[in-house]
Predict the 3D structure of the following.
Amino acid sequence: MKEKRLVKCILVNIVLLLGALFIIFPFYLTIVSSFKSMSEIFSNFFGLPKTIVFDNFEYVLSRPDYFDALKNSLIITFISVISMVILLPMCSYAVARRRFSSKFYSFVYFFMVAGIFIPFQVKMLPMVKLFSKIGLMNPIGVILFYIANSSCEGIFLMVGYLASIPTDLEEAAYIDGATTNQVFSMIVRPLMKPIITTVVIKNSLWIWNDYFMPSLVLSKSNIYRTLTLYQYSFRSENSTNFTIVFAVMLLSILPIFVAYCFFQKQIVSGMMEGAVKG
Amino acid sequence: MKKGRVYTLPGNNKIMRTLNNKNLTHLLYVLPNLILYSLLSIVPIIMGLFYSFTDWNGIGKNFHIVGVDNYVKILTDKRFHKAVLFNIRYASMLILCVLFISVALGLLLNTKTRFQNIFKSIYFFPACVSMLTLGLIFNYIFFQGVPMLGELLDIDLLKTNILSSRKLAIYGILITNVWKSVAIPTVLIISALQTIPKDIIEAAIVDGASQIQIFFYITLRYLFPMLSIILVLVLKEGLMIYDYIMAMTTGGPAGATESITLSIFRVGFEDMRFGYAIAQAMIVAIIIAMISILQIRYSDKKKIYE
C-alpha cells in the first residue's frame, strides 16, 4: 500500500513537471533569445546563449520609447485603480444601505449592474466617435472609460459584500452622533478591505494588460502609447529582428512577474473571486 | 440581507440633522460613478442603437435612416456568417480543451505532494501576462521554433508555420489561448475539490467503489456547479476573442481567422459601413447578454450548494 502510494506520487509529480515545463517553455525562450545575437538565434534557437549579449537591451533601453510606454501604462493603471478605490466603495455603500428603502437607489443598483451584461463590442464604435467629438482621445478618456466600465462589476461585488456586514456598528455610531462621512470612512471602509483588494487586483491586471481599448483610443499618436501598444508597434517595425523583440517582451513581462512574486496569494484569490462573481 | 434602518427620533435635533445630511452625502457618494457610467456606457449604446438604423459611414455629415435594412442585410452577409462560424467553432474547442485540462490539472494539483505550491504558482502565472505579449511570443514559436523542431525530428506536420495555413491557423491561436486560460479554471476546480467532504469518499471506499466510480459519482457531482461557471466564462472569452488574433494572424490567412469582434471593427472603420457594423454589434451583444444572464443564474445555484 505504501509503495503504491509512492509510485502514484512520483507519477503525479512527473506529469505535473511536464506540464510546468510546457508552461515555462515560452518564458524560457523569451529569456534566452533576448540574450542572443541575431547571428546566433538561427543556429541555436532553443539552447542557452553561447555568448551572452546585452546589445538587445541596450538598443531598447537607449531609446525613450520603452520608458515612455511604461510610464503611460503605470499612470493609466494607477490613476484608474486609485479612483476606483475611492469612488466604488462610496457608491456601493450608499446603494447597499439605501436600495431597500429608496426607489432611487434600487434603480441605481439595477441600472449599473445591468452594465455587466453589455459586451464591449457594442460600445466600441460609438464610443470612439463620442470620444473624438469631445476631445477624449487621450489617456484621460481611457482612464474615465476604465472607471466607468469597472463600476458595474465593482458595485455588484461590493454591494453583495456589504450585505453580509451587519449594520449594528454603523447604527451605534450614528446614535453617538457621527456623520455619514465618519461612519463610512472610519467603520465601513476598513471592513471592506478584502473586497476592495479583489476589485483592485482584477482591474489593475485587466487595465495593465489591456490592448483593445488603448488601440482604439490612443494609437493615433506615439506619445500616449501604453506598454501593450508599444509592444505591438515595436514588433511591426522590427519584425525581422527577433532578438530585440524578445528583449521588449521580456521587459514587458518583468513588471508583472515582480508583482506576482510579491503578491501571489492576493493575486490568485483576487482573480478567482473576480472570475466567479463578476 | 438586512435592511438599512432610518432613525427618526422626534424632537432630537442632532439626529435630524445627521439624517438630512445623510441623504445628501449618499447622493454625493453615488453621483460620480453614476454620471461616468451613464455618459460613457449608456450614451454610446443609445448612439449605437440609433446609428444601427442608419447608413452612416462614420465620417460624413449626411446619412439616411434606413430602418431595419442593416439587420436584414446581416441575414445574407457571408463575411459575418463566416466570422460567427469561426467564433462558434473556436469557442466550442476552447471550452472542451479548457474544461478537460483544468479538471485533470486540478485533480493532479489537489494530490498532496511536496512541490504542490511551486507547481501551483507556475501554472497560475500565465493568467497574469497580457494576451498580446503571449500572442506575440507564440507567434514566434510557431514561426521559428516549431518548424525548427519539425526539421530536427523530421515530422512533416511541424515543418511549416501553422499560422500561415488556412486550415491550421485556428489551432495555433487555440493552443495559445488554452495555454493561458487554463490557469484560473484550474484554481477554481481545486477550490471546488476541497469542498468535497472526506467522509463521503471514505464511505465510498469502504463500500468498495473504484477510483473511476468515485470520480464519476462523487467528484464530478461536486464539481458540476463550478464547471458550469467555467463553461460560461470560457464561452464568453471564446466569443469575444480579439487580442490573440491581432497578435498572431490579424485575421489571416485570407480571412480564415477573422473573429466577430475583428470583423465588426474592420467593417466599421475600414470599410466605412459604420451603421451596419453597429447593427452587427447589437446582435452579438444580445447573444452575449443572454449568456451572461445564464451565468448569473448558475452562480446563484452555486450559492445553494455552499
